Amino acid sequence: MDAAVLAAKGASLIVRRLGLGGGTALPGLLALRLDPALVPRLAADLRAGSVLVTGTNGKTTTARLLAGMARAAGLRVVANAAGSNLVRGIAAALCQAARADGRIGEGERSLGVFEVDEATLPEAAALLSPRAVVFLNLFRDQLDRYGEVDHVAEVWRRAAASLGTGTALVLNADDPAVASLAGAARRPTLFYGLAPGSHCLPTLEHAADARWCPACAGELTYGCVHYAHLGIWRCPECGLSRPAPHLEGSLEEGRLHLRLPDGGRRFLPLPLEGTYAAYDVMAAVATALALGLPWSAIEEGVVRFGGAFGRQERLVVQGRHVHVVLAKNPAGLNQVLRILSQRPAPLRLALFLNDGLADGRDVSWIWDVDFELLSGRVEWAVASGTRAEDLALRLHYARLGCELAVEPRPVAALRLAIGRTAPGETLHVLPTYTALLRVREVLARWAGRPPFWEEAEP
Amino acid sequence: MKLRLAWLYPRHMNVYGDRGNVIVLRERCAARDIGLEVEELGPGDRLEASRYDLYFLGGAQDREQRLVARDLTAQKGPALLEAVEAGAVVLAVCGGYQLLGRFYRTAEGEELPGLGLFDAWTVHPGPAARRFIGNVAVGWEEGTLVGFENHGGRTYLGPGARPLGRVLAGFGNNGEDGGEGAVYRNAFGTYLHGPLLPKNPHFADRLIALALARRYGQVALAPLDDALAWAAHRRALRLARRRPILERWAHVLGGVLSWQRSR
After folding, report:
1. Which range among A32-36, A54-58, A199-203 shows the weakest confidence by mean pLDDT?
2. CA-based nearest distance B115→chain A, Å
3. Which of A236, A352, A390, B219 is positioned for an S-S bond with B212, CB 3.0–4.6 A?
4. Partners of residue B194 in chain A, C-beta under 8 Å
5. Interatomic CA distance for residues B173 and B178, integer angstroms
């Protein structure tokens, strides 16, 4: 019998029974309290090793895509699929997968796929000795917690340098802050990136962060900006440039055309909209290739991808189409607004801005978001959440030219928004992280869907 | 009527929503038929002091602050000082505020020269020191100011500068003397970072009025419908004031815990 594992399982059961949520944090905390060495001990049973996915945006989607590919390849996946991405979340996932005797069965076929918070990465990497670490991107996000973007970049550099020689690095070539980690790590690196195309933006978005050369601090120039500061970058001063990707994608009418490291060419459907979703698919494919998964499994993982909770999720509520898209920082929200700006007008929006600890207490970031993209395309919008007034003020100054309601209470705001959407029409719901948990719960209930922690299981 | 604003180092000093201030100045001018022309000046660009009525400097990370410090003191500094003596309006937040003081000593002990526009200096007590992070409320001569602060540096004022206001909740300049920000003539420095003006429409209008007065003589600003701005202001004020109560309890709780440990 394993006391820590049993305690975690028990706590998880109680939390869920009492309807207190997914039980993804408390059980992990409890187990770690009883056995601080729990993570490496249980992870030793994952004979197929583990993979860590980190970055500002796309962790959950990428990890889910990768888990789907691994399952299609016949592996048993242990994952913190409900998005609890600190060490406690990993501990909880391992406990959930373990038997009462503290062993993970079918060990030889078990693969850990864990999404990891940016700042937690060094600790998680030290505990798990992963087979691969995927770095997605680095954007401004929750600066009240992380201090500065440069600070996170430094933490990553040190973590990359200290990884064991058996760990493969999967890096986004198009993000200068991520691509430069290869220099720090000196190990086998697999780069993925997007080829230029019709999606290229003429200039860097306002919220772009890594506009300075990681080597010499010169100002980078771009041949193509995919979004934010991701693109075909080059430093005119020292000549450092975007590394040639081993896996290169190009966007072709809702499909992703891929050039594989071995020179082969393949097509994949894009399960989600937007350039940022193409990056998640490329990251998952690159990692799957690094793990040696067969192409058939990779393809199956993408085709069968059901979306991660609240990430471009579609529900039908009282005959209305409700489209829920998590938007928690400027780079992500700008991508969502770009997608919406291509939708037929008029749009109906319910936006939720919370300033909980997990969202970041500082809501300044909404001023880096280009809400102006939707000018003249919105019929009405409801601003909600703990900082509803801040959001409404931002929309006011963006001159959307639409009716604007302020309703801080989330359930009342949803009721109002659904009431104002005619049956058959679409309502777009854009919440920050903690708002998503509440909004998704209410919408799922109204739509007759199960809560997220049940959907998070395969 | 027309005003011209110089946005200094927008690509270097742009941490978190800083452009909100520029948007709000432009929109509040536009609502009163005042054309606000915004020109962006980066390192190497010449600053023509007579050209601008308003200046804005945003926040920066330490790395960018280092780059800007060199250009500001060597290139644009003299012109900016001259402009301020002639009554130009300056708003500098966070890193921009620090740079307008005499110097900024970084966490690593490196001393970056400042412009000396404010009789103030900033010292970062080291990487292990607590950052001052959270909602802030400040008592200002024309009401309260609300915002968010996030800084490691502690700023101290000499006799040549006076604080912008008194800290009602939060940390302010240094967490010790209760002062927040600095004022010299029509130049305002503050740690209330990013989009400070949207939630403080009275402060935004004060800056616009000062700039207009210099160019056109006293101009009465038409009132705007600021119901949303004041709602956001009140919300931020409530949030800022909630924190000290929590902290007082945290202190009591911490006391109990340490008492138990010492037993």
Report:
1. A199-203
2. 23
3. B219
4. 362, 364, 367
5. 8
- Which of B15, B16, B28, B151 should one mutate to test binding to chain A, selecting the residue with the greatest count of A CBs within 10 A? B16
**Given an 8 Å threshold on Cβ–Cβ distance, is A389 in contact with B231?**
yes
Per-residue confidence at B60, pLDDT binned at 50, 70, 90? confident
Q: Is A78 strand, coil or helix?
A: strand
**Which single residue is written with the structure tokens 């992500």?**
A332
Cβ neighbours of A212 in B, within 8 Å: 63-64
Task: Determine the average pLDDT of the residues in A106-133.
Answer: 91
Indicate whether B259 pLDDT > 60: no
Using the Cβ of A237 and the Cβ atoms of chain B, whether some distance falls under 8 Å is answered with no
Q: Which residues of B touch A150 (CB under 8 A)?
A: 61-63
B77-134 residue pLDDT tens: 999 999 999 999 999 999 999 999 999 998 888 898 999 999 999 999 988 889 899 9
Read out DSSP for B99-160? HTSSEEE-TTS-EEE---SSSEEEE---TTSPPEEEEEEEEETTEEEEEEEEES-EEEE-TT
pLDDT above 60: residue A457 = no
User: For residue A456, what pLDDT is reported?
Assistant: 45
Nearest to B24 among A219, A389, A397 (CB): A397
pLDDT band at residue B249 using 50, 70 and 90 as cut-offs: low
How many CA atoms lie within 13 Å of A98's alpha carbon, on the beta-carbon side? Answer: 30
User: How many CB atoms neighbour CB A325 within 10 A?
Assistant: 23
Whether B150 has its CB under 8 Å from any CB of chain A: the answer is: yes
Q: How many CB atoms lie within 10 A of CB A294?
A: 14
How far from the centroid of its chain's Cα atoms is residue B59's Cα? Answer: 8
Contact with chain B for residue A140, Cβ under 8 A: yes
Distance, CA of A443 to CA of A315 (rounded, Å): 8
Nearest to B195 among A140, A367, A406 (CB): A367
- Bridge-based pairing of strands B165-169 and A76-79 is unpaired
Report how many Cβ contacts below 8 Å link chain A to chain B: 92
Chain B CB contacts of A237 under 8 Å are none
B232–A389 C-beta distance less than 8 A: yes
Q: Across residues A323-347, what is the average pLDDT?
A: 92
Confidence of residue A3 (pLDDT cuts 50, 70, 90): confident
Catalytic residues of B: 94, 193
Sign of the CA dihedral running B70, B76, B79, B83: negative
Cα gap B72→B42, rounded to integer Å: 10
